Amino acid sequence: MVKRRRPTRISIYNHKGGVGKTTLTMNLAATLADSGKRVLLVDSDPQCNLTSYLLADDVVDELLDKSDSDQGKTIWSAVRPLSEAVGGLRLVKPVRTGVQNLFLIPGDIRLSEFETDLAEFWGQSLQRKPKGFRGTTAISELVGELSRQLSIDYVFYDSGPNIGPLNRVILLDCTCFIIPVSCDLFSLRALKTLGRTLTSWISDWSTIADLAPEETLLLSGRPNFLGYVPGGFRVYGGAVAHQHSHYLSRIEKEIHAQIVALLRKIDPDLAQGTLSQFKLGEFKDFGSLVPASQREGLPLYSVGAGTKVQREQARQALTALADKVEARIADTQ
User: What is the CATH number of domain 8-285?
Assistant: First the structure.
């Protein structure tokens, strides 16, 4: 097995949709970039929401139109030779965003085709076939090389809201992960599925890693649970609405039962910390700042919408969250 020096790779992941995952990913990454860290965003969602968030529509259209060509610059352009069995991984140059120190590997609708291949690669890895390991680790290898070239400190993956082969290799490539949750019954129910799936992925990859021939590049296979971020709730007069407050306490209990406890059965180091430490912060409903952020491709605190007070509140919330994330990473290493 070959071990590589890696930047911290983070996934803000939940297979339930509508939890503000892409918005949180972009704004947390941008906040870290604004603090001087070099950050690489990887749009690993075939819906390309993060790419559309950060780049103008005509730029996105051109990227997708050319992704099959030798000039392609999307994540699909990188893995296409493997998918079509015509060659190895092809390096693509990340796109600069409107935020200093923040880079993007654009997403692509056709990445869904590679997801089908990943299911086959996984089976081939179980058979100790080199092709399986090359395919399974392709995105990881791409991210690793580009991170080295750009001296990246943090990598953020933006994944689709599903449980499938693509998200499996993304989560297993990460140093750590964060769960965004909304204050509703569906989020509570989704935590049980999420916990069981994650622990199954980790256990299965451990088996594959043990089968790997010498000098094989592998995924880390040990994503550490940093914590969760409740979002989408409204604040009235400085207080959280009663309904959301009720769900916050239930979410805390389910996080411990369905995520922390299950991960600790595999390895206590995968979920380090006390119950209170796992709550990283809150990402409330910032109203008009969110659509403005998506239109302008800028963090909430840098947009032209809202009031100065609202933007400052967003800045303070995101800075506190970024500080907590960095502290948790330091504590768990």
Answer: 3.40.50.300
